[in-house]
Amino acid sequence: MTSVELRDVTCGYGPQRVLDGVRFSFGAGEVVALVGANGTGKSTLMKTIAGAIRPLGGNVLIGGEDLRQMTKRQTALRIGYVPQIESPAFDFTVGEIVLMGRMPHSEGLFETKEDREAADGAMARADCLGLKHRPKSELSGGEGQRVRIARALAQEAPVMLMDEPTTHLDVRHQIDIGRLVRDLARDGKTILVAVHDLNWAAAFTTRAIVLGEGRMLLDGPMPETLESDVVDRAFGVEFVRIRERGLRLFADDES
């Protein structure tokens, strides 16, 4: 079981600081929602935890090991990362893209029977197996998002970071991804999801980290955290909370 711990992490780009002093940890079986308004640093923090950018200060520990000391392969064996968007240089097919998730497990070309079975299983779980032979250029935004999720699943890393995984997805696939995330946590995965849809977060995550004002504002269990007026402050709106068949939040258009 692999835990993730952030110790006073400062992140950003060059001299530009986006977040300061972020401190929290999460472990196997948790689905933690990273929430906040656009521009509050959710994606920047996800990239920092994934090792895509180096922290400007503090430490990220994966299973007790400092991320700075890991090679790219060691990081990829521990962390599966689903970016919000990406622009591949070549027009690979869906099957080829998902097989790329097997690269950390291979000493050479990723074409073993085990790799192909893992990739097919990942595509089936993300509901994109039927797209296997389609080139990336022919995919819709939602289809591309499911393919990125399948690639991370094929990676079989114990930690999964998902940056806005429901972006571009229709309602049915948003629910399917929520159920998949919940199932992965039950299987022992350690999951952090950056999400702007608070109602999706309320339905499918167990805890919320609220970002705003260049720092972490709140960390608490779901849905109690969404009851806090800190969430209203973070998003700059006053939410109306409906407490029937679970908590639901709606922006008050008169606030």
Describe the secondary structure blueprint for this structure.
Blueprint: E1 4-13, E2 16-26, E3 31-35, H1 42-50, E4 57-62, E5 65-66, H2 72-78, E6 79-82, H3 94-99, H4 113-125, H5 141-155, E7 159-163, H6 171-186, E8 190-194, H7 198-204, E9 207-212, E10 215-221, H8 224-227, H9 229-235, E11 239-243, E12 247-251
Parallel strand pairs: 3-8, 3-9, 6-7, 7-8
Antiparallel strand pairs: 1-2, 1-4, 4-5, 9-10, 11-12
Give the strand tally: 12
| Share of β-strand residues | 25-35%
The shape is globular
User: Can you list the strand order of the major beta sheet?
Assistant: 6-7-8-3-9-10
CATH-derived architecture of the domain at 4-85 and 157-251: 3-Layer(aba) Sandwich
CATH C-level class of the domain at 4-85 and 157-251 is Alpha Beta
Q: Mind telling me the C-alpha Rg?
A: 18 Å
CATH topology of the domain at 4-85 and 157-251: Rossmann fold
What is the first-to-last residue Cα distance?
A: 45 Å
Q: Averaging pLDDT over every residue, what do you get?
A: 92
The main sheet comes to:
6 strands, mixed
Low-confidence stretches: none
Strand-pairing-aware structural class: alpha/beta
Order of helices and strands: EEEHEEHEHHHEHEHEEHHEE
- Please give the share of residues in helix: 25-40%
